[in-house]
Amino acid sequence: MKMIRYLFFTWMMLVVLNTSISQNTNLSNAISFNGEPFLMVNPSNHQHIVVAWMSFQLNNNLVMKIRTSFDAGVTWTTPVTIPHVVAGYTSADPSMAFDSNGNLFLCYIDYNATTFQGGVYIVKSTDGGITWGTPIEVINANAD
User: Fold this and answer.
1) Is-contact 34 28, C-beta < 8 A?
2) pTM for this model (two decimals)
3) Other C-beta atoms within 10 Å of 143: how many?
């Protein structure tokens, strides 16, 4: 019976050790909701990785946050927040793509579910995801 307990305890310690040294990196460093991540690898430079996700901020609903790595994920920039188009909006559903010139585009929804206002927006980065331009509305939520 002692041997079974010993084996069980050893197995549990191995499970804990294995999960504590996993390859996952907590990019958000947050204690609240951070979800729907979108990862993009630059097709011209596989060392260049950009991640966008929905992040909860007090008094700001959900916002888009982005982090960039130029060394295949060894180091990351500090998170960049994409400001809402209108105060009180909530952001959702990030997706990204690089064009053939190396520009990075982030597409996302920015809206107010209570007033049925908002739309789909696109924003451009010319430096690989470190800084971002002004969001441009692609389609309004009330276009249909």
Assistant:
1) yes
2) 0.79
3) 9
